[in-house]
Model the fold of this input.
Amino acid sequence: MTKKYRVVQWATGVVGSASLKGIIRHPQLELIGVKVYSDAKDGLDAGEIIGADKTGITATQDIDEIMALEPDCVIYCPLPWHLGEMCRLLEAGIHVVTPCPYWFPFVQNPSTAKALEAACKQGGVNMHASGCNPGGIAERFPLTFTGWCNRIDRITMTECGDCRTYSSEGVMRDLMNLGKTPEEAANSRLKEMLAKSWNEPIDMIAAGLGSEVISYEAKHDFILANQPIETAIGTIEKDTIALNHYRHIGTTREGTEIVQEQIWYVDDIEQTRLQSKMDIPRSSGWRIKIEGDVNLIVDVDFPEGLSQDERVAQGLSTTGFHLVNAVPLVCEAADPGIKTYLDLPMITGRMGTHATPR
Ligand SMILES: NC(=O)c1ccc[n+]([C@@H]2O[C@H](COP(=O)([O-])OP(=O)(O)OC[C@H]3O[C@@H](n4cnc5c(N)ncnc54)[C@H](OP(=O)(O)O)[C@@H]3O)[C@@H](O)[C@H]2O)c1
Done:
């Protein structure tokens, strides 16, 4: 009989809610607990949090209650995240799957990698960071396509996101710097963390290609709003950042460039609310481009006719579902430690109950 894993959903924001829905549907997973932060969600049934049928599982703010459940795995989706909490879970013998760093921390964050590895070894469990980007577009999918290639000169991953309907204040303002003044963005305490978050998948690609990165570069351009712009996190004020163009570039010792590019903005594709315009390929979606003796362009998009709300919701659901689908493989992986895409077998979706809403 296939083993069932007992899982806790930790934080139920935009991504955590998608992941919670995924746990309930997954035939190999059993939801046994939900950790929340907000007073309004404390004591609610997990189903109520995502607008689904009641599950009999009550959300709690109390970490000790969660630890006492002794889950096999926690899907850890808070903002901010805490390395100490991740290590506490791992040391207690609980596998951790997360959309937060650390996807491939060995080069950018060696001390963090060491702490996580030690906690995994102590608990006899694994830690895996996943997601959509990073966690999919940034490394897993391009690495797969490199299997079609021989000489590779450049690999570029581009994300375009009209983020007006993304309701995470923390991600939009603190991580993406939308609504900040250029000075605030330049002095952001998260600047270094953001660069490391994009350099980690660059390192993973280089490692997957049997190489290493010998130089890193970061470029940041932005465009300010020419008027107040309404978004799901409130107003992005005039003269604050309404479009960010980030590029993080790693060059391997062979000279292959690995480029992580994001165009995050709060306007429609015409950009009439911005002080100048940028050539944006499309309102939301991803492109993986490989240049070399094989030249590939892989576009990942949503169907025509979806509203922008639906595009953002589905884009963020991919993050939650990717986490859920990884859980059995992470729980089964041998030799306790950090498990990246270079360690795990292919992660696929699973058919399950259709008891939760779309
Ligand atoms: N890798 C990827 O592709 C990817 C994509 C998107 C997001 N992410 C990451 O995934 C995480 C969740 O993103 P999201 O979009 O779901 O964000 P979000 O909607 O802002 O949700 C974050 C949740 O964290 C909890 N929280 C509130 N205050 C907190 C505190 N002081 N400390 C810790 N947690 C607190 C809340 O949970 P409750 O509502 O349950 O109280 C909140 O809903 C973030 O760390 C983000 O960076 C990764």
The CA atoms of residues 22 and 324 lie 6 Å apart.
